[in-house]
Design brief:
about 70 residues, mainly alpha, 2 helices, about 60% helix
Length: about 70
Amino acid sequence: MLVGGLVFLVGGGVYLIARLGLPLGRLPGDIVINRDNLTCVFPLATSLLISLVLTVVLNLVARYLNR
């Protein structure tokens, strides 16, 4: 149930970010290939940005909890 709740929260966060107009998935560095019946998306820059933000946030939380 914990994993399901976490997936629900992450999905809701992604939905809210999209509604706010932030260009996640459309950043420079994201690769999009459009062909006749095929669209492939490789969100490299978006993945790096999310990884950086999560690293900073989790490090701050870990420092706060260790005091």
